[in-house]
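2024-03-11 09:14:02 DEBUG pipeline.ingest accepted 1 chain
2024-03-11 09:14:02 DEBUG pipeline.ingest length=205
2024-03-11 09:14:03 DEBUG pipeline.predict start
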Amino acid sequence: MNLPSKLVEAAVEQFASLPGIGKRTALRLVLHLLKQSKENVNAFSTTFIEMRNNIKYCKSCYNISDNDICEICSDHKRDHSIICVVEDVRDVMAIENTMQYRGVYHVLGGIISPMNGIGPNELNIESLITKAASGKVNEMIFALSATMEGDTTNFYIFKRIKDYNIKTSVIARGVAVGDDLEYTDEITLGRSILNRVPYENSFVR
């Protein structure tokens, strides 16, 4: 793509580096910004700089937050004895949008994937085990993607907490095998949370 300005070309490259945005879409976005006032463009860019510099991760569940403890974990109306274990913050958003869950979360920051060099030590698993050992948790819901890596992670955590007398459940397989939670429609995901089954029943026999 031949562009008349190196500045425009650099801006297009930055937009095109975002997921799902090709060069043509990036160019349209850049040309749109050029039509805006300098004040609007400065406000646009400042928003992202402030987000990146000031965003925090909840010290309890690792969800993104404006404060040290996120709104979900600081909400006394939530059931803190139920922890929904998810892969990343997008899954928290997806489940919250169903409005069917009133417990709290624990964001692992990924799933165990030896092929990609990701082991248990690279994830937020030890802090989850600490919660399990506290005696304050009654149930853990495994809400990881229905993939081999997700199932491996579920089983690893299950083995680590099996001696703590905690009910373990997994979301119902209304979520298709191989699907990511963030792409599942809210009704299906909500029903999967409500119709969760004991984790032991999910084993392939």
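2024-03-11 09:14:41 DEBUG pipeline.report The chain has two domains: 6-54, 75-202.
2024-03-11 09:14:41 DEBUG pipeline.predict end
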